[in-house]
Design a protein that fits this description.
Chain A: It is found in: Cell membrane. Chain A: This is Dipeptide transport system permease protein DppC. The structure holds 2 protein chains of 2 kinds. By secondary structure, chain A is mainly α. In chain A, about 70% of the residues lie in helices and about 0% in strands. Chain A contains 15 helices and no strands. In chain A, α5 runs parallel beside α14 and α12 packs antiparallel against α14. Chain B has a domain of about 220 residues: MetI-like fold, CATH 1.10.3720. Chain B is about 75% helix and about 0% strand. The longest helix of chain B is centred in the first third of the chain and has 36 residues. Chain B is flat, with a radius of gyration of 24 Å. Chain B is mainly α. Classes of the chains: A mainly alpha, B mainly alpha. At the A-B interface, α6, α7, α12, α13 and α14 of A face α1, α6, α7, α11 and α12 of B.
Chain lengths: ~325, ~325
């Protein structure tokens, strides 16, 4: 927490620290905004940048699926079942009813990414609203909302999703709404926490004094302070939603043929494990890589906005420095 | 303390009540309601009416809810629609199977995760620590059921070392060794998922404690490092870990659903999926409510343990940590 002892290193040392960029750089002409600071730290994190590049490749690849592959992912052709990879232009071969696996992977990517991002977006909206109202007004409104959050987090999410998908039918839109409806609670808690912390600040009082409306204070003055934590949370939620979608589709309660998703492909592949185990590998690998990429990005943003993270590393250096020099100096 | 216990208990009851409302409401919000769901297609409207009357489905919703809830409280979970079996007969055996699977996986992952996390906290950013963080990234990003399928392909189909699925071999029902043999693969899947989280918790909780002043004091007065770790730090570090493990119960119960489906394990999660497909709504509501009870009780116990273990925790305010 408190690392006030950090600068105790002798004057000669700090210049060598690679991550104390502020001392080695010439004075900046213009102060960086918070977004630029975030980006400059983020772009120096190899994991996060790899994650970003991989995710972009997947997004671009699945969006331009039509250009990349000439095959229709839903086209059944029983003459060409279970082709080996590479035959007749089928990059990864065909499945048990002659559909091109590579094309199916690309088109599945569209569905999975669509679900991942829209679920994150919707749950951020719901969560911010609930958290903001709850944290700002407090009192009985807060109690009611937070009890609701408790209830929502006490029902196993997967059960609720299965229940809803089984009862109402398996449409993509239902699925997105349902997944969003079961994952907004963390955002709500986070936003509420920020509000409770900040609503007594003087700038809020000042805003009230000059007659800013309640909505103005809630959304303009307070919500912005929670922006970065919300972004981190949302990023991790994208991964969670993709995993949840694949799980539901695997159980047969998600995406239905002729549409396709990675989870659905996995569920089909399990029946044909003996003939072609690789069919089970590809879609799972796609899910794994995308979720990993998203999580790396989320962690990258979190590390970039957390001033503690930098100190952790420098403390390690400090320990090393102590080991090397402490006998003579201290 | 007593006051806190009572308040916390009442809160839990309230949460449970709300959950039962949600579960009940969901089922009855279905297009056509449970009547539609449960009647065989092609049944004549008159017969449907009589059936609905027999099952009390023509009463107003609040009355139905009241009847259902009182039955639940009496321990009567209702009857399945298909063959009119008591829900309990279908449900309880699967609960036992899930508990066998989960407790096994849970104990193993805790036995690995906590010592590993502690070790890693003492050697931050070391090889073992990096490995743990790699494992946790993999565990969080990998679809558990996919890992299960891969294990099946490799260990059952290619190498033929371990059974593909189910709980027992056909001719060895109830054999404990056979059960262990069948547990290996599904447990590996579950352990990977839990390991990812628990190692991280144990490590970060230890790190936080190791930064405290009293640890520095202990070291300064010359307490050996072993004693510092195990006597001074560990006790305090385990408190948040206990809580998080308690809060994790919903994930434990829900997380087993997919694993059970992959390995054809006759547990509660798989029963839920099967029943959802068949729209056996009395079973679905019973499972939802039972899981909710387990989860809420888990949270309650975790909170109380937290209070007992750590006298520093102030539990005034509204509902302690969770509010």
């Amino acid at each position: 927490m408190s690392n006030t002892n950090m600068p105790t290193a002798p004057n000669a040392e700090p210049a060598k620290y690679p991550n104390s960029e502020n001392t080695s750089l010439p004075p900046a002409t213009k102060t960086k905004g918070p977004w630029m600071v975030l980006w400059s730290k983020f772009s120096r994190n190899p994991y996060a940048m790899t994650g970003l590049v991989v995710l972009l490749i997947f997004i671009i690849g699945s969006l331009s699926a039509k250009l990349i592959t000439p095959f229709d992912p839903a086209h059944v052709d029983l003459m060409i079942t279970n082709l080996k990879p590479g035959t007749d232009g089928h990059v990864l071969g065909t499945d048990e009813v002659g559909r091109d696996i590579f094309a199916r992977l690309l088109y599945s990517g569209q569905v999975s990414l669509l679900i991942g991002f829209s679920v994150a977006a919707i749950s951020v909206i719901i969560g911010s609203l609930v958290g903001a109202i709850s944290g700002f007004f407090g009192g009985w409104i807060d109690t009611i909302f937070m009890r609701f959050v408790d209830v929502m987090s006490s029902i196993p999410t997967l059960f609720l999703n299965i229940l809803v998908m089984a009862i109402f039918g398996t449409k993509i839109s239902y699925m997105i709404l349902m997944l969003a409806f079961t994952s907004w609670m963390s955002v709500a808690r986070l936003v509420r926490g920020t509000y409770l912390q900040l609503r007594e600040m003087q700038y809020v009082e000042a805003a009230k004094a000059i007659g800013v409306s309640k909505t103005g204070i809630i959304f303009r003055h307070l919500l912005r302070n929670a922006t970065f934590p919300i972004i981190v949370n949302a990023t991790l939620m994208v991964g969670g939603a993709i995993l949840a979608e694949s799980g539901l589709s695997y159980l047969g309660l998600g995406i239905q043929a002729p549409a396709t998703s990675w989870g659905l492909m996995l569920s089909n592949s399990q029946e044909f494990m003996l003939i072609d185990p690789m069919q089970a590998v590809y879609p799972g690998l796609c899910i794994f890589i995308v979720v990993l990429a998203v999580n790396f990005i989320g962690d990258g943003i979190r590390d970039a906005m957390d001033p503690r993270q930098k100190q952790m590393k420098s403390r390690r250096r400090l320990d090393k420095w102590r080991k090397n020099y402490s006998k003579s100096e201290i | 303390m007593t006051e806190y216990l009572i308040r916390r208990f009442l809160q839990s009851v309230l949460v449970l009540f709300l959950i039962s409302l949600v579960a009940f409401g969901l089922i009855h919000a279905a297009p056509g309601g449970p009547t539609q769901m449960m009647m065989a297609p092609g049944i004549s409207p008159e017969t449907a009416k009589i059936q609905a009357h027999n099952m009390g489905l023509d009463k107003p919703l609040p009355a139905q809810y009241g009847i259902w809830l009182t039955n639940m409280l009496k321990g009567d979970l209702g009857h399945t629609f298909k063959n009119n079996k008591p829900v309990g007969d279908v449900l309880w055996p699967t609960v036992g199977n899930t508990i066998k699977l989960m407790s096994f996986a849970w104990v193993i992952s805790l036995l690995i995760a906590i010592p590993w996390g502690i070790y890693n906290s003492t050697r931050e950013y070391g090889l073992s620590d990096q490995t743990a963080s790699f494992v946790s990234y993999v565990g969080f990003a990998m679809p558990a059921f996919w890992f299960g399928i891969i294990l099946q392909v490799f260990f059952s189909l290619k190498l033929d070392w371990l059974p593909l699925s189910d709980m027992y071999d056909m001719d060895k029902q109830g054999n404990f060794l056979n059960l262990l043999f069948h547990l290996i693969l599904p447990c590996s899947v579950l352990v990977l998922g839990m390991l990812a989280a628990y190692t991280k918790y144990a490590r970060s909780s230890m790190l936080e404690v190791l930064e405290q002043d009293y640890i520095r004091t202990a070291r300064a007065k010359g307490v050996p490092e072993r004693k510092v770790i195990f006597r001074h730090a560990l006790r305090n570090a385990l408190i948040p870990v206990i809580t998080i493990i308690g809060m994790d119960l919903p994930i434990l119960v829900g997380g087993a659903t997919l694993t059970e489906s992959v390995f054809n394990w006759p547990g509660m999660g798989r029963l839920f999926v099967d029943m959802a497909r068949q729209r056996e709504y009395s079973v679905l509501m019973a499972i939802t409510l039972i899981t909710a009870v387990v989860v809420v009780a888990g949270n309650l116990i975790a909170d109380i343990l937290y209070k007992i273990v750590d006298p520093r925790v102030k539990l005034g305010g509204k509902g302690g940590r969770s509010a």
